[in-house]
Amino acid sequence: MRRAIAVETDYRERVITYLTLLASESGRQALCQAVEPERLAFELCRVWFDDIYVAGHRYFDGLKGDFSPDAAELFRSAFTTGELAALERFNQFLELRLNMLPKSDLTFRRIPDNDSWRNFVKDARYLLEDLDPHTEIRSRRLVEHLSEVDTSDVRDFKDFVETTVMAFDSQIDK
């Protein structure tokens, strides 16, 4: 049973929207009009650590010096115990994959489109299916939203991805 409090929807929706973007081939392709796929993968990972996975203790580039136990508790309250365990496994899987990358890839702000990355995307898809019964509808709406966004003059891609995830209206009429 999910623990219910008012703020939980924001965290839950943010995670689901992020996973929808990550798991959607069409969504990632739409974003690749503005940035190369390896850079997109890098920025998506940064967004996960820095903005989406509030319960984590690290940013992409190091430990969270401003870790908020209250925010982490609000984040945890948005998910069931089983969902939290799946989110933590997903987070640890990403950390492991990043630790296996050569330093040069991180220095040049890219994550290669290889089996490791594709497995991470596949895991995101599985996690999304566990968290949201409306995966297909949400994915289609996100791709439609991205097709309407002008990405030609995006300068800070992490900020763009974060804003897209945070602003996307991912509420599904049930």
Record the SSE blueprint.
Blueprint: H1 8-23, H2 25-31, H3 37-52, E1 58-59, E2 62-63, H4 69-77, H5 81-100, H6 103-107, H7 115-131, H8 135-147, H9 157-167
Antiparallel strand pairs: 1-2
Helix pairs in contact: 1-7, 2-8, 3-9, 5-7
Structure characterization notes:
- With 174 residues, the protein is an all-alpha fold.
- 66% of the residues lie in helices and 2% in strands.
- The two termini are 20 Å apart.
- The model is unreliable at 1-8 and 170-174 (pLDDT under 50).
Largest sheet: 2 strands, antiparallel
As for the number of domains, it is 1
Total number of β-strand segments?
A: 2
- Beta-strand percent range: under 5%
Shape: globular
Structural class: mainly alpha
H and E order: HHHEEHHHHHH
Note the gap between the termini: 20 Å
Keywords:
174 residues; 2 strands; two-stranded antiparallel sheet; disordered N terminus; single chain; globular; 2% strand; 9 helices; mainly alpha
Quick structural gist:
With 174 residues, the chain is mainly alpha-helical. It is built from nine helices and two strands, in the order αααββαααααα. β1 and β2 form a beta hairpin.
